[in-house]
Specification:
By secondary structure, the chain is an alpha+beta fold. It has helices at residues 2-21, 29-39, 50-57, 92-110, 115-122, 141-151, and strands spanning 46-47, 64-71, 80-86, 125-129, 132-137.
Amino acid sequence: MAKKAFFVIVLAVFLICIYTGQNADDVPMEKIEQQLKENTALAEMSKCSNRMLMQFYSLDYEQFDEYIYYKSSQALSVEELLIVKVKDTSDLDSVRDAVESRIQSQIKTYEGYGPQQVAMLKNAVVMTRGNYLFCCIADKPEVYKEVFTDAI
């Protein structure tokens, strides 16, 4: 009986950790952006416009609460950071699909001649947390992810 109670408690703690781990505070994008600039190489990328979000991801900025989109200014670089805050979590699937499509398209583009770029694309971090979708394609995307998760 004690073993069963112990396993039930462990299971309950595990489920609570998983459930609360998917939540995120409602943090203004300016604060997230500032923390990324201070703790990563984001300053080496260029901030992208609404038009560029539509051009590269086929995402309409008016459908979201806020977003941050940075892209490398170097022609052959695939480094990008995209954070989208959706109005409703049901919108996350369509944003994730657009992100996955962009990554696959980039892999096809660089497959024949850019092994470093392809490796970076295959190592991209894409995750959701609360109403946020985070996508980072970089040499060390884990650093960006850590700063982002600490911010929210």
